[in-house]
Every structure is written in C-alpha cells, then in structure tokens.
Write a structure and sequence with these properties.
The complex is a heterodimer.
Chain A: H1 3-22, E1 26-27, E2 30-31, H2 35-49, H3 59-77, H4 88-116, H5 123-144, H6 155-190
Antiparallel strand pairs in A: 1-2
Helix pairs in contact in A: 1-2, 1-6, 2-3, 3-4, 4-5, 5-6
Chain B: H1 4-27, H2 34-39, H3 41-49, E1 57-58, H4 64-74, H5 96-127, E2 130-131, H6 135-146, E3 153-157, E4 164-166, E5 172-176, H7 183-194, H8 197-210, H9 215-238, H10 242-254, E6 266-268, H11 273-284, H12 293-310, E7 312-313, H13 323-332, H14 338-351, H15 354-360, H16 363-378, E8 400-408, E9 411-420, E10 433-445, E11 448-453, E12 458-462, E13 477-483, E14 486-497, E15 501-503, H17 508-513, E16 516-518, E17 530-541, H18 545-549, E18 553-560, E19 578-581, E20 587-593, E21 601-606, E22 609-611, E23 624-630, E24 633-642
Classes of the chains: A mainly alpha, B alpha+beta.
C-alpha cells in the first residue's frame, strides 16, 4: 500500500473517530457511540500515517490513555455510574491530555494536507483554523464549569449553546477530513 | 501558618500538586516546549502561596482528614487555618506540637540565612571584579540589541568558571576575567536578563526555604531552576544552526559550576553537574515547535491552574467501623454558610448522628461531642449522639427553620421544627401531629459557621397536616403601626429548608421510576432553596360604629423592606377590590369591601406563598411599609415594626 493510500485510510478513520467522539446516542444508560471506539480509530490512523508525519507517534501514549479512560467511563456507565469527577487527579490529567491530543492530531493532519492538497483548496489552513477553534472551545468548556455556581440562571442556555457549537465544530472537522480524503483519492485515480 | 497542623496542610497540599506536575511533565516531556515546562512550576508556586483549605475546599487530596487523625492522637480539638503561606510564631511553645513547629521555624530562618550569606558572599566576589571594557562590552551590547533587552552592568571577575547574571533590582552580568566567553553563553545569560530569571530564582529559593523539610518541594525547586535554564537553552538553540548547536552542548559540559549553583538571585549557565545530564538530553531532543503551540500551552496552563486553585469542596464521608476516621472526616468538613450550619444541625438531630454535629459544633463543644461519639461507637450504641430530643423524629419528613432572622452581623436565629413520631406517655390522636421545636442560632466562628441550641426541645401539637405552609400553633412575628384611626397589624411567619429529595440511582429501573427519598446527608456549603412566607394582615378601627358605617372599602399596600428599592418612594394607586402580589411576594396590595356591622377588627390578607424563593425573602424583614386607603382615599403611610416576636 502506498503512503497516499495509507493517508486516505487514516483520514477516514480519524473522521469516523470524531463521529464517535462528538455524538452520543443513549439507549437508557448505554452509549451506542462510545468514545473509546473513537480513540481506537485515532490510534489505528496514527499507526497508518506515522511514516508520513513523524510527530504523530507522539500521540500514541496519549491516545492509549484516552482510550482506556473513555472505555472505563463507558463500562461504568452501563450500570448508571460515573467516574467523571470522582478523582480530581485523573480529571485534570484527562482534560489536558484530551486538549493536547486533538491539538496535535489536527496540527499533524494539517501538515499532511499541506503535502498532498491541490492548489485549488487549502485544507491545511482550514484544519489549523478548526484546531485553534477546538482548542479554545475545549478550554472554555472546561473552565466555564468553575463559574457555574454563579451562572445557575443561565446555565441551561449556556450548556445548550455550547453543545450546539461543539457539534457544529465536530461536523465541520469531519467534513474537512472527508473532503481531503476525496481529494487524495482523486489524485490516486488520476495517477 | 501559625501551627504545625496548618504547615502540614499547606506542605501536603503542595506535595500533591508537585506529584501531579511531575507526572504531567513526564507525560508531555517531548510534546510541550521547555518554556511551558518552566512556566508550569508557577502553578506549584501559586498553590504554595495560596492558603490551603480556603472556603472548605481542598486540592487533589483532602489532607485535612489525616491531619485531623493526627490531631485526635495528639488530643487537640481546636481548628487551625492557613492564613498566610509563611510561618508566624504567635506564642511561646508549650506542647509537643508547638515545639515541633518552633523547630520548623528555626529551620526556615537558618535556610534563609544560609542563602543570604551565600548571596552576600557572591556579591563580595563581584565587588572585587572590574567593569568589563572593550570587546566584551561591545559584544554584550550587540547581542542585547538582537534579543531586544537593555544590557546591564558587566563585570569581569578572576576565577569565575562561567558567566552569570546576579541581582534582582540592579542586575550585574559577571564574566570570567581570565578566559574567553562565547557569544552563545552571553546570549543565554542575556535571555535570563530579558525574562527576569533572577527574580524567579529568588522566589524559588524563598519557597524552598519555607518548605525546607519537604524533600519533594526541595526537589521541585531544583527542577524548576533546571527548567529555567532549559528554556533559555531552547531559545539559544532556536537561533543556532547545525554545528553551532553541538558546540553549545559542549560549552555547557565544560562549564559545570557547583560553586554558585544554588545562590539565590543568580542564573548560572551550568547550574550544577547533576542537572547537566537532563539539559543535554533536552538539547538532544531539540526541535522547533509548530505555530500555535503557545496557544495550547496557555490553554493547558489555564486548565491546570483553575482546577488546582478552585479545588474540590470537602464533603463528609462516613467510614463503617472506623469511628476515628469518621470523626476526622466530620471535623475536616465544616459549614461554610449559615444555611449549611442550620441544615447540618437539623440533620444531626433528625438522624441523631454525632458526626454531623461535629461538622457544625463550636470549638468549645468539639471535645465533648467527639468523646461522646467515640465512646458510644465503641460500646456499639446507636444513635451515637444525644441531641436532647427524647422523641423519635421522622427523618423522611425533613425539617423547617421558622422565622429566620439576622440578629446581628454574621448571626442568624430561627426556630427548628421537625415532626416526631410519638410522645412518651401520650396516646396519639387521629389527625394530630406532633412537632418538636427548638430555637437555634448559627454564627460565624473563624471560617466555620457553627450552631448553638438556645433552649431545650419542646413539643407542639397541631391538626394541620400541611404545617410546612405555616402553622397557627407556631409563633410568628407581629409588625404594628398606627395610621389615623386605624392600627395596622401584620403577623408574619416564614420558613425555609433545603431541597433534599433524591432519586434512588441503584439500578436502571430505579433511575427511571424509582422512589424519591429524603437525603439526610448534610449540605454544609449550600443555601436554603425552599421556603414559605405567610403574612396575615388586618386593621383595628379605633372610631365608633357611626364612623364605621361611612367606610365602604379599606385598602392596604404592603411592602416588606428588605432593601432600598423594595419600598415605592410614593404611595401608588390601589385596585378597587381584590388582592395582588408582586412576583416575589414582598409587595401585597389588597382592597376589601366592608360588611354591614363590621369591626372593630377586619382581616383581609391571610395565606402563604413560596416554595422556591430567593434567600433574602425567607428572612424576616426589618419593617413593613403600609399605605392605608379608606374608600379609595389615602389615609397615610406608616412604618410597621416588630412587636417582639410573639404569636398572634
């Protein structure tokens, strides 16, 4: 398999990974789109594309941590429990791991896009823009929780707004990745 | 920190954060830039300078619990608090704990003196040097211009192993007089000058002295200084290419300086031989970080700082068969609001739980309650605390605090009301309910809110099943005033409680439709969320029957004076008939038609409103302002003041 084909496959997995991460469909207490599946897809994409972008290997440990944590979250969620908020120690590590993981992943994907994109579309710039937006958004989502006691009256509105923005951002990232994949596939077919 | 316990709390809290930072730094060793790795120590600095346990919160681990266990062993029942992050001796030591604290303070003083002496020694060495001239000053000026920093005074000193910057307010760049200094070294030192690293080095040194007996903090201080050097290494390497980078590593190795490695207010390029290895490794890992790395670095720092500074609210945890741990947990979870103190006391009475009482008991009662709880637990007696209530309360019905008022600043009083199951020697009657009542006070004791019972429990009998909506058998507060021939009376009864309904979450079925039960776990940091305000208003006419015949309607506009804008500046027009309440119920307007032969008393407002009221509306107001209307004409405005809190 050529590098370009690997990149196509990797991009598809990352896009689906974000689908599992950004969307939640719950049947009672069972989340049908568990986050750990998303991280497993990210990890397999990292394995496929690391020859193309050396820095992607840095994400392996962090990806495993996130997959284990979201997996544990999903498992205890089956019995109606939560591990989120139980240990501040773990919460902090997970929050910053999550923040960095997506920042680095999208940065590296932008770098790959720069190599393969055609002159017509600048996927790299779009990805970098979404990366910056996502980093700021994840920070705001985390930080704003500390101010929730003083915003009890508008908290529901804020939560709904943040959820909408979060989903829109996810859809845009997925769309860009799939567009980039299509662009690469076209190039492979032409060759 | 005025005792060993507050020092322990502060240093253990800092240790928890230090462990977290070491872990995170290891995880992000090759991912985030050296600048971040140095800046992140600032989070530890903030935690060391931020009083631990503030507002009943903790960071990462609730260290107060093991400290309370130690205090229990030492037989201490007082509460200590970190007011300042530095040690302060307030009295001559007497107990063992006080002597240990005194030894610790002596250690701080000795370490500070040791560093001060080493700094003075270094300044004396520099004083023996000569101002640098010629080529070296030209090079310093050129490099300073490149990195956009104002150059400082440069002195050449014989016998120095390398260059360094010394001093916070008037820094000096010291260079060896008997050797050549490489441009890369000068660049490194001028970058220290640019980022005011001598100031950070002094601060790190002071914090190291305060926590001299904590090896973890001492280790982190060393790491912080090393990371400060690595940050400058990175900045130098970013300006170099190829062979120059390798050359820089070789210079570093050749300049191991143990002599001034730990002197405060200085920056030595080679800060001790042990640290060189890590820096060489960092140089080997050197890479240019992508654009945007600053953003993620700042975001990670913001998340870390906020999480650690805000911390977690301490909550009580009961340990089965380990009463000493439960006592420690209760003593370390204190009430941070007056409502929390009322709630904790009420739930202690409802469940006869001495651990809950410890959470809200004043210092003067801590020893007695602790001994009672521990004694009863050892004997297997339950309930483990005697609240003075002889009857068994209905825990599932909760409690109400009637007629809550602020008697003076930080002191609240109210009547605790809870339903009891039976009265000894009394045969219960159908539709008769027994309420146990006790006057209680919540007041601030340092950071804690504590409760005092003001009298013994007494039992009130009522036939009113819905006593939470006000109860005629319970007292109210009567406000009175005179307007013309009329005496206006308002009798007000308020009550408040905390929403404590909880869904059974034990399984999926319970979650969907399971029972809701009354949660008897205290909420020491919460505020009252539920309440009822029940005013009764009437007027007494002092005139004769002939005069009363001429009165067809009487109207009143009442405004509870909670704060300035509650009372309209001028009397407003009033409806011809009927009653209206403002949104929060603090204003009531009512007009009633008189019946033939009425008087001399006529009542026209009776009933409660509420459930989810803001806290201020559940407290008795200082006064009411009433505008009285007769036959639609304003008689006058009058202030109504409490008559002494008697029941109507």
């Amino acid at each position: 398999m050529t590098n370009c084909e690997n990149v196509c496959k990797g991009l598809k997995r990352v896009a689906w990974g974000y689908f599992f991460l950004y969307f939640n469909f719950n049947l009672f207490t069972v989340n049908l789109l568990p986050g750990f599946v998303g991280y497993i897809l990210f990890l397999s994409a990292v394995t496929l594309m690391r020859d193309e972008e050396r820095e992607l290997s840095l994400l392996y440990t962090l990806g495993v941590i996130m997959a284990l944590w979201t997996g544990a979250e999903w498992l205890v969620g089956l019995v109606g429990l939560k591990i989120d908020g139980l240990w501040q120690f773990a919460d902090i590590i997970i929050s910053i791991t999550n923040l960095y993981f997506h920042f680095q992943l999208l940065t590296n994907l932008a770098s790959i896009a720069e190599k393969y994109q055609t002159d017509e579309r600048s996927f790299d710039k779009t990805l970098l823009r979404y990366r910056t937006f996502q980093t700021v958004m994840l920070t705001v989502v985390y930080v704003i929780q500390f101010f929730s006691p003083w915003m009890s009256e508008v908290w529901t509105v804020i939560s709904v707004c943040m959820a909408i923005v979060y989903i829109i951002a996810g859809v845009l990232v997925m769309k860009t990745l799939l567009d980039l994949r299509r662009c690469l596939q076209d190039q492979i077919e032409k060759e | 920190m005025t005792d060993i316990w507050s020092f322990l709390l502060q240093t253990l809290t800092a240790s928890g954060v230090a462990v977290l930072l070491i872990l995170i730094k290891a995880l992000f060793k090759d991912k985030l830039p050296p600048k971040w790795h140095f800046t992140v120590w600032g989070v530890l600095g903030i935690i060391i300078l931020f009083p631990a346990g503030l507002f009943g919160r903790y960071t990462l681990v609730n260290w107060q619990v093991p400290i309370e266990v130690l205090k229990g062993i030492a037989g201490e029942y007082g509460f200590s608090k970190v007011k300042f992050p530095v040690p302060v001796v307030t009295s001559m030591p007497e107990t063992v704990a006080e002597w240990i604290f005194a030894l610790y303070v002596i250690g701080v003083v000795i370490s500070l003196l040791w560093y001060a002496v080493s700094y003075v020694g270094l300044r004396m060495v520099l004083a023996g040097g000569r101002p640098a001239t010629g080529r070296i000053t030209e090079r310093v000026s050129r490099i300073a211009a490149e990195v956009k920093v104002k150059p400082c005074r440069t002195v050449a000193v014989r016998g120095l192993p390398g260059a360094f910057v010394c001093g916070v307010f008037r820094p000096v760049l010291a260079v060896p007089a008997d050797g050549e200094v490489d441009d890369k070294v000068l660049l490194h030192e001028l970058l220290h000058l640019k980022y005011r690293d001598t100031l950070w080095s002094t601060l790190i040194c002071i914090l190291r002295c305060i926590h001299w007996c904590n090896p973890l903090i001492v280790y982190c201080a060393g790491r912080a200084v090393n990371d400060m050097e690595s940050r400058c290494d990175q900045l130098v390497l970013e300006r170099l290419e190829g062979e120059d980078r390798r050359e820089y590593g070789r210079i570093l190795l050749s300049m191991v300086n143990e002599r001034f490695a730990k002197t405060p207010g200085t920056t030595c390029l080679s800060n001790g031989g042990k640290n060189i290895k890590e820096r060489i490794e960092a140089i080997a890992r050197f890479k240019k970080y992508p654009v945007g790395m600053g953003l993620v670095s700042k975001c990670v720092l913001a998340v870390l700082t906020l999480s650690l500074v805000v911390g977690v609210q301490a909550s009580y945890r009961e340990y089965d068969a380990e009463e000493w741990l439960s006592v420690a947990s209760a003593r370390s979870t204190y009430c941070t609001t007056p409502d929390g103190a009322f709630d904790t006391y009420a739930k202690a009475v409802l469940t006869q739980n001495g651990f809950y009482r410890l959470m809200c008991a004043p210092v003067s009662e801590q020893k007695t309650v602790t001994e009672e709880v521990r004694g009863n637990e050892k004997k297997g007696i339950f309930p483990n605390w005697n609240s003075g209530l002889d009857e068994m309360p209905y825990a599932s019905e909760g409690y109400y605090v009637y007629n809550l008022k602020e008697t003076r600043e930080d002191v609240y009083e109210g009547l605790l009301v809870l339903r009891v199951a039976y009265i000894p020697d009394v045969i219960p009657e159908m539709h008769t309910y027994y309420l146990a009542v006790q006057n209680i006070r919540a007041e601030r004791e340092g950071d804690r809110w504590v409760t005092f019972p003001l009298d013994d429990f007494s039992v009130v009998e009522t036939h009113n099943e819905y006593y939470e909506w006000g109860c005629d058998e319970l007292p109210g507060v009567r406000y009175t005033g005179i307007a013309g021939d009329f005496e206006i009376n308002v009798t007000l009864q308020t009550n408040c409680t905390m929403e404590s309904a909880k869904q059974d979450e034990s399984d999926i079925i319970s979650l969907l439709s399971g029972p809701v039960y009354y949660d008897t776990l205290p909420r020491p940091d919460a505020e009252f969320t539920k309440g009822v305000v029940r005013p009764t208003c009437g007027v007494v006419h002092a005139g004769n029957e002939e005069e009363r015949k001429l009165i067809e309607t009487i109207g009143i506009s009442l405004a509870a004076d909670y704060q300035e804008d509650d009372v309209p500046a001028e009397p407003e027009s009033i409806e011809k008939t009927g009653i209206s309440y403002s949104a929060n119920g603090s204003r009531i307007r009512c007009t009633t038609k008189t019946e033939p032969g009425w008087g001399p008393y006529i009542e026209f407002i009776r009933g409660g409103y509420g459930t989810n009221l803001p806290k201020r509306d559940m407290i008795l107001p200082e006064r009411y302002v009433a505008d009285l209307y007769v036959n639609g004409e304003l008689v006058g405005r009058v202030d109504l003041y409490p008559e002494g809190g008697d029941a109507e």
